[in-house]
Every structure is written in C-alpha cells, then in structure tokens.
Amino acid sequence: MICLQCGKQAMQETDVKGLFHTRRELVCGRCGSVFVDHEGRGEHFELTDTRNPTAEHWQSYRHQTLSAAEWRHFAEAASPTQFRARATWPRP
Ligand SMILES: [Zn+2]
Question: For the chain, is the Cβ count within 10 Å smaller at the N or the C terminus?
Fold first, then answer.
C-alpha cells in the first residue's frame, strides 16, 4: 500500500505477533510514518508514529484510527492553511 501520509512510497508491511492478536504494521521508509492495522483487514489504520517535524497536524493525529480513504483525504489537505480551512475534520 502506498504511504497514507506522503503518498510517495510503498509502505513496508510486517505482521507483528502480539499477546492477543497479530497486528499489521505499515512503515514508510521515506517519511517514517508508521500505521498499524489492528484488524489486519486493510480497512482502518492507527497512526502510531511520524518523523516529519513540519507536519504538526500529523503529530496531533497520532493514535487516531481512521480509514485509508480518510487518511488519503487528509493527506491531500496537508498544507497547514488548507488544514485550518477544513473545519469539518474532528479535532483530537
Ligand atoms: Zn510516507
């Protein structure tokens, strides 16, 4: 899957065995974003890490679980001014 944050690179997918369930981690080598698919169904992703210090809104959205479509929609509005204009997005 192409990175849900930068949209530039395919994310590396790894299955991580946990105590109660196996989750899928998706890591982007380009921007350092880490998304976790807890259900393993490729539908909802939690942003657990990001390395881009300029993207304050991504920092605010850490640990939010959104669908892939929502993340993509969000990434398209990634500039801070556009982001502020999008009042419809839920605040953390
Ligand atoms: Zn990326």
Answer: C
